Amino acid sequence: MQTEPGGTLIACCMAWILLANFSSGAVLQNAQRQEATHQDNRPNIIFIFSDDHAVQAIGAYGSRLNQTPRIDELARTGMTFDRCFCGNSICGPSRATVLTGRHSHLNGFMRNGDRFFDAQPTFPKLLQNHGYQTAVIGKWHLVSDPVGFDYWEVLPDQGHYYNPDFIQMDGTRRRFEGYCTDLIGDKSIEWLERRDPRRPFLLMCQHKAPHRNWSPHPRHFGRYPLGTIPEPETLFDDLSNRSPLLGTAEMSIARHFYWGHDAKFPGENEFPDYFLSGLANGEYQRMNEQQRAAWDAYYGPENDTFLRQLRQGELTPREITAWKYQRYLHDYLGSVAAVDDNVGKILDYLDTNGLSENTIVIYSSDQGFYLGEHGWYDKRWMFEESLRMPLIVRWPGRVAAASRSAALVQNIDFAPTLLACAGVEPPPEMQGRNLVPVLREAGRAPDDWREEIYYAFYENEGAHRVPQHDGIRTDRYKLMFFPSTKEWQLFDLQNDPQELRSVHAEADYQVVLAELQSRYHKVRQQYCAHSAVIPESRWGEAWWRERYDAKLREAREKTADIVLIGDSITQGWERTGRAAFDKTFSEDSTLNLGFSGDRTEHVLWRLKRGCLAKQQPRVFVIMIGTNNTGHLGQDPDEVADGIREIVNTLRGAAPAAKILLLGVFPRGERADDPGRINNRLIDERIAALGDSEHIVFADLTSLFVGADGKIAAEIMPDFLHLSPRGYQMWADALQTLLKPLLAR
Ligand code: CA
Fold it and tell me: Residue 448 catalytic?
């Protein structure tokens, strides 16, 4: 385990004994709420979060494209972070990281469409437990219902710009007439109006805008007229001198722009050589008569002019792409303009109500976006435009006005920072660092600050077909790795800020490459980004999928006293060990979550996917890891990380449950079997997880191994799996170990 100095542990996989206090917390919560009185002058926090708002479209970041006066006002009175990056450039994963302070592979939300594992600590939960009133309004996009909020009202999935639906706290959906960005601003202020003024608050005001399909309010039609918007230098980038994988992505303005959804043409696609068919403009279909009339009045004549030119063959392919860019940016920047208006609406409310002085206001967005750079729209890549996040923080009296920070910061830092602002100690499993010292020191990072950020994108064949990749970015360089082709890419941001040439193969950069590769491996270990911890499904195997579904149903239907977690050896209680199990545990309700062939990463996938349902057993029994040894000969440190993370996850999901953590069973006939040795090394590392309170570690090796170090075939016929007699021995041992743990 590594510690990042400065008080925050980078502890990917620490046992978190205190977690019970954070997670279960109803008693604690009530007690602390009672403590909070009108004397409570801890700062309020307003976290304004937009979706896909690139720094290239923010005045305070030097935009050549637009003005954002109200966001810029925040920057003039607060601090602007010039090097804030996401850890995974896509909506849901960035949001999960913001909430948890953990990278995607540990918070479990790695790809859009995953479901947020809500039994883990989040900063809103912790603030709520410490007396804050909490609300989230707007885009959520984590599939699960929000947890840790006194009030929430969120868009289903991506939501809509026009007349959007909002999910209410009772689960119903209500449709609201109007424009989404304005509605989210208004709803935020309505909540501020009715909150309890005696307690500090956290308000997360989260806009859908300016997410695709970029649909402005009529008041912003024509604000950025076609033909006037500057093009990026790389609009016609041929993507040479970089991995061929760049060319496989489907996010090109020239080639992947939809006729209806993106270009906003009605009717059938007339020019399939230049536009994709199949995605209509869903916003248009939601509009009321008045909205539609305004829309037609603006878009109709522009469309007519362009389509006439196209029909008459007057435009070159390059001119067609340039037109698409103008249409795209008109719509994107118009959508940004409404966000800016609504930032202003909240700032005005704070001023009018005397709240500005004691309210921290943050503006950020879940990741950046390509505004035509490299010929693209969308995000996902580790290149600067989508890697960067805006981050502006106003905290009167604490943060110098108009200050800027060049510190390398990341969205893992948001949660520990916001907790620190409220005087709450961040739990050790949060991986980010508290930015308060940077905020207080005019943007200067402490001497021991991180020297690189870590990035990992996990979708592969998902939307837009951007390949899986990860990497690090330092002050000057960016190193990327593509596992599908085992390619490295290296960019020298000082000499090549637009990232147009990978220098990984150039002689002059070989020393830099080697050093960065070494740092990359070190950082991956530091953040536990390795295969024993990164959740992995076996969904492609039909039996596994069916067992998963069956076990999930069982978990939802019963209340188990004992939940067994493991691989084929645990699953074997249902077959070879059936008789021993039934005899020994006839009076206990049990749930067997053993899956043959599973490694730690598969167990983590199941747990973070929610396979426990709401199970709150009295005891978890864990025995896992021998397949990490047997399949991969995996390093025992890494396997131990995986087991630790399983323990952590269970502690979060069922804080009152005890955990019986069994050492990985011995394997191989002889004591010098390499698999036997590896399992023993894993056991040595996980033994320390045992504590006197919640986790009991037990090593049963001596049960199965004779004095000569050999395993007898009548106990383990294949020197890995137990015989019926072996299961009876295990059952007897378990009965003894479980007795005190099951006692009420
Ligand atoms: Ca986004």
Answer: no
